[in-house]
Amino acid sequence: MARIGVLAVSDGRDHVHRRNTGFIRSKADEFTAALTAAGHDVVTGGLVATNTTATAAARSVAASSVDVTVLYYAVWAFPHFTMLAADATPGPLLLVASTDPTEPGLVGMLAAGGALDQIGRAHTRLWGAPSDPGLIAEVGAHASAAAAVGSLRGSTFGRFGGRPMGMNTAVANTDQWMRQFGVDVEEIDQYELVRRAEGPSAEAVSGRKWLEEHATVHYDGDRLTPELVERQLRLYLAVRDIAAERHLDFSGIKAQPELTEHFATADVAEALLNDPYDWNGPKAVHVTATEADMDGALTMQLMHRITGTPVLFADVRHYHPDRDVWDLCNSGQHATWFAARSEDPAENLAQVHLYPEVFFFPAGGASVQHIAAPGRMTLARLSRLDGEYRMQLVLGEFENYDARTTRELVSRSTPEWPHAFARLDVAAETFLSRFGANHVHAVPGDRRRELRVAAGLMGVRVEEWSR
Ligand SMILES: C[C@H](O)[C@@H](O)[C@@H](O)C(=O)CO
């Protein structure tokens, strides 16, 4: 959960402040207790009733590296205290008012908010009873979004290989990334992967046995052999080790066409990097985009930092108009976690088939096939319109069907690749006319609130669809 600073702003008249202290404390304490009960780490800056305490308290809260600072209004509060506190607060600001009408808390928030507007200081206003679950959830969403955005700053993206197959949407401007998101890009030649993945590896043998034990491997003696699976696993180990050595926070692998023509596909590596486990047990998700898709990876990393879960990377492959359902089908991998979304890898891998790679990829290896488990999902993608970032956002529902229908649907595209059948809250015409890339990303649940806030904090316009 996130770290939230709370300062309760008061009246600058000494006698009024003295009279109201108990009232403010009771509201602010109830508010902070509710935030703590929701799992947040709350840093309290006390009550602000003078100009000097406004600055000092805000500086002290900011020094605790809070993700967001709440200025709390239970009573009428002198607005210049808010202005001074805001000036001493570099991070995002929430103005929260108690709606108890015995004291003019709302008035205090509106006067303070108006003053911040006059100096162009961005803030969000919220109101309600101090422990109202809706209010606490909203503050929590702002805090997690701010924590996610903050965690991007100072992070490094590992770009293995460059632009794949002329895919402009996979390439972003590194200056823009640093300026807008604080993310650095480390370029790593795919030769380094090949060099490391060439020799034998006992660890890769263990990985192959684990996959053979828990998934269904369709060896064909040609495109898919135990040797090729081990080679794909050595690619995984190479990225894992390079990420550790160079302190990479998230990555992307070009693969096509060099690796896929002459070495092996990166599908097994990408699936396992995105998974929260491998044969050694639970591990951190290392967000990894297929085709070294930079904006895709950035979207995934943001979504991952909000949810803590793996993030789906998929091609928008087909729309079934008769069902109003999309086939989101990547060219060879979705993280295996999406197969059942279980914490137990065996439950997910029981749904996974490793098929010989199809004609696109003569070097062979396994594609990681499964059907994504059903449920509510949030789909998003950062893309650029005329150089400006925007976040396209829509709610969806992944669906599963009976075996015969599933077979029929997957056979219309590429059955050997993984599929997520998605009903999206947007007309196909709108999506196909406006979506800014070939890749889309998804996480479980309705996370639109956090993503909207995150986009705002990153200076990114949200283009949200619903019917
Ligand atoms: C088979 C192609 O080479 C695929 O890689 C292509 O459909 C994509 O995945 C594009 O995102």
TrEMBL record:
Domain L-fucose isomerase N-terminal-1 intervals: 2-133
Alphabetical list of Pfam families matching this protein: Fucose_iso_C, Fucose_iso_N1, Fucose_iso_N2
Domain of life: Bacteria
Domain L-fucose isomerase C-terminal span(s) in chain numbering: 328-465
InterPro entries listed in its UniProt record: Fuc/Ara_isomerase_C (IPR004216), Fuc_iso_dom3_sf (IPR038393), Fuc_isomerase_C (IPR015888), Fucose_iso_dom1_sf (IPR038391), Fucose_iso_N1 (IPR012888), Fucose_isomerase (IPR005763), Fucose_isomerase_dom2_sf (IPR038392), Fucose_isomerase_N/cen_sf (IPR009015)
GO molecular function, one term: isomerase activity
Annotated ranges, domain L-fucose isomerase N-terminal-2: 250-307
Keywords linked to the UniProt accession: Carbohydrate metabolism, Cytoplasm, Fucose metabolism, Isomerase, Manganese, Metal-binding
PANTHER family: L-FUCOSE ISOMERASE
Record's protein name: FucIase
Organism per entry: Amycolatopsis rubida
